[in-house]
Amino acid sequence: KAKSFARGEIVIEEQDVEDPLWELEMALLESDVEMSVAQEMLDGIRNDLVGATRKFSAETGDVVEDALRDSLLSVISVGQFDFDQRVAEADKPLVIIFTGVNGVGKTTSIAKLSRYFEERGYSSVMANGDTYRAGANQQIREHADALDTKLIAHEQGGDPAAVIYDAVEYADAHDIDIVLGDTAGRLHTSEGLMDQLEKIGRVVDPDMTIFVDEAVAGQDAVQRAKEFDEAAEIDGSILTKADADSKGGAAISISHVTGKPILFLGTGQGYDDIEQFDPERMVERLLGDEEEEE
Amino acid sequence: MVLDNLGSSLRGSLDKLSGKSRVSEDDVEEIVKEIQRSLLQADVDVSLVMDLSSSIKERALEEEPPGGTTARDHVLSIVYEELVGLVGESTEIPLENQTILLAGLQGSGKTTTSAKMAWWFSKKGLRPAVIQTDTFRPGAYDQAKEMCSRAEVDFYGDPDNEDPVDIARKGLEETADADIHIVDTAGRHALEDDLIDEIEEIESVVDPDRNLLVLDAAIGQGAKDQAQQFDESIGIDGVVITKLDGTAKGGGALTAVNETDSSIAFLGSGETVQDVERFEPNGFISRLLGMGDLKQLTERV
Ligand SMILES: Nc1nc2c(ncn2[C@@H]2O[C@H](COP(=O)(O)OP(=O)(O)OP(=O)(O)O)[C@@H](O)[C@H]2O)c(=O)[nH]1
Ligand SMILES: Nc1nc2c(ncn2[C@@H]2O[C@H](COP(=O)(O)OP(=O)(O)OP(=O)(O)O)[C@@H](O)[C@H]2O)c(=O)[nH]1
Ligand SMILES: [Mg+2]
Ligand SMILES: [Mg+2]
User: Fold this and answer.
1) CA A50 to CA A66: how far, in whole Å?
2) Average pLDDT estimate for B266-270
3) Quick check: A38 pLDDT over 50?
4) ipTM for the assembly
5) Phi then psi dihedrals of residue A29, to 5 deg
6) Rounded distance, CA A240 to CA A250, Å?
C-alpha cells in the first residue's frame, strides 16, 4: 500500500466503489439493461477494481465508469461478424428465418432486408411463414408488391414449414440468392408455437436464424431471447424501433444471454430505415446521459 | 425463472419476519430492497420505484402494527396499500353509448385490442363498431376487418382513402347505429411529430369519451416518456396492457398510470378476440411483486 502511495497511486477499497457502482446500476436499469445482467457486469467490475490501484489524479467514479464502458463494449460486441461478407461467401440460396415475439417488427425487417439485399445485387424471395395472424398475408403481399419481390404464401391456417420449404424450392429453381422466411409472432410461453419453430428449423434447415426484438423492450428481453435461442438456435438479432427514444439496453441483455451478435438496428417504418449495428455507438447511447451531466 | 427467484427472495426476507412483532430498521431496509428489486424487474420506472420504496419504508417504521399482526404482515399490507393507492381501481367504463380512441406505439396491440373490446361490449349486450383509421401499415385494413368478423361486430374502414381523419369522420357517420364506437389508429411513438399531430387531429374530429393508451406488457423504461407525450397531445383516460400471456410483468403500465394520472382499463392475454378482461388490481400487483394473493392478507391485517 505504502509503495503504491509513493508512486502517486491509491489502492481502491470496496467502500470506494459502492456508491459509483450503485449509481451505474441505476443508470443501466434506466437504460433497460436486465437486472441480473447488470449485476453480473457490475460484480465483474467490482472484482477487477477492488485491490487495484488508481492514480491520485483519477476519481474513483471515473475509473468505475471506464471499466463499465469496457465491460459493456465487450458484452455488446460478442460474436460480431461481417454480415455482408458472410452473405457473399454463402452457398445460394441463403435461407434466413426470422423469429420473435408478437409485433416486434419481423415482417417489416424482412421487407427492409429485401431492399438491402437488392441494393447489394442479390435477388430475394419472401416466404410468409405467418399462416396464423389476421391480415398477415395481405401485409407481406403489400410489402412484396411495393418492393417488387417474389412472395410465396399459402392459405391462412397452412403449415408454415411447408411455405418456407416451397420458397426454398422456388429459389433453387429460379436462381434466387436469398430466401427471407417470416414466422408468426409468438410468446415464448406458448409451448405449441415454440415447438412449431423447432419444426420449421428441422424441415427447412435454414442457414441463418435471426431473432427480432425491439429497442423499447424492458427486462423481459432476456427471457425471450433465451427461449427463442433454445427453440431454434439463433445466429444473431435485429433490434427494431431504435427510433423510439429508448436507450436500448435490451441490446446488452440479448447479446449477453445469447452470446450472439446484434446485426441490425431498425430505425423507422420506411424500407431504408435499417442500419448495420455499431457496438461502440450503442455503448455511447447507453452511457450518453451520464456524460452530458458531467 | 429469474423473476420467480426474486419473488421468492422477497418472500424469504418477509418470512424471516413472520414470528416477530416489531420490525427493526435493518429488517425494513432489507425488505424495501427486495421490493425495489421486484418492481425494477417488473419494468416500473426507476424513480417511481425509489419514491414508492421510501414511502413504504417511512410507514413501516412509523406505523404501529395493529394488535395481533406480525411485522411481516404489517409491512406487506403497507406495500399492497401503496401500490393499490397508485394503480387504483379499473378505469370506469359505463355500459352506455360512447366513443373510445386507441393510441400507442407500433405493434403494441391496438388493432387486436379494438376487436377484443368490441367483443367484450357485445357480450354486455351493446352494439359496438370498430373504425380502422390506419392507412399506413400494410394490411391494416384487412387485419382489422378479419378480427372484427371473428368478433362478430360491425367494422368500418376504407382501403382506398389515404386520409385517417377523413376515415374517422366518415366512419362515425356510417356506423351511427352502433352504441359503442372504437377508433383504431396507426402505431406511432412520442418522437414522430407529424404522427402526433395526426392523432391530435383524429382526436378532435372523433371527440372520444375515452382515450386509451395501449401498452405492451414488456415495455421498458420508455413507457414514461411515451405516456407523457400521448397524455400531453390527446389526454389519456386509461391504459390497456397487452401480451400478459408472456412473462413480462407490465410494470410500464404502472408508470404510465402514474404519469397520466389515469388507471388501467383492460388486460389482453392472447391473440384471439376473447382474450380480454377488465383490470383488477390484486392480480396485477401480485404479478408485479411475484407473490400470491396479497389482498386477502391485507384484509386479514
Ligand atoms: N418506429 C418503428 N416502427 C417499426 C420498426 N419496425 C417495425 N415497425 C412497426 O411496428 C409494427 C409491427 O411491425 P411488424 O413488422 O408487423 O411486426 P411483426 O413482428 O411481423 O408482427 P407479428 O407478425 O404480428 O408478430 C408496424 O407498425 C411496423 O411499421 C422500426 O424500426 N421503427
Ligand atoms: N400473445 C398475445 N399477442 C397479442 C396480444 N395482443 C396483440 N397481440 C399480437 O401482437 C401483434 C401486434 O398486434 P396488433 O394488434 O397488430 O398491434 P397494433 O398496435 O395494432 O400494431 P400497429 O398497427 O402496427 O401499430 C399481433 O401479432 C397480435 O396478434 C396479446 O394480448 N397476447
Ligand atoms: Mg409479422
Ligand atoms: Mg394496428
Assistant:
1) 14
2) 98
3) yes
4) 0.95
5) -65, -40
6) 11
Q: Which residues line ligand 1 (CB under 6 A)?
A: A 100, 102-108, 130, 133, 184-185, 240-241, 243-244, 266-269, 273; B 106-107, 137, 187, 189
| A1: number of Cβ within 10 Å | 9
Question: What residue in B sits closest to A106 (Cα-Cα)?
Answer: B107
DSSP string for A17-63: HHHHHHHHHHHHHHTT--HHHHHHHHHHHHHHHTT-EEETTS-HHHH
Quote the CA–CA distance of A3 and B132 in Å, as a whole number: 74
Q: Are the C-beta atoms of B151 and B116 separated by less than 8 Å?
A: yes
A213 CA → ligand 1 middle, Å: 10
Query: Would you call A238 helix, strand, or coil by DSSP?
Result: strand
Beta partners for residue B239, in sequence order: B213, B264
Name, in order, each residue with C-beta under 8 angstroms of A38's C-beta and a sequence gap of 6 or more. Answer: A25, A28, A29
The residue type at B256: A
HEC secondary structure over B160-199: CCCCHHHHHHHHHHHCCCCCEEEEECCCCCCCCHHHHHHH
Checking if the pLDDT of B22 tops 90, the result is no
Determine the 3-state secondary structure of A12 from DSSP. Answer: coil
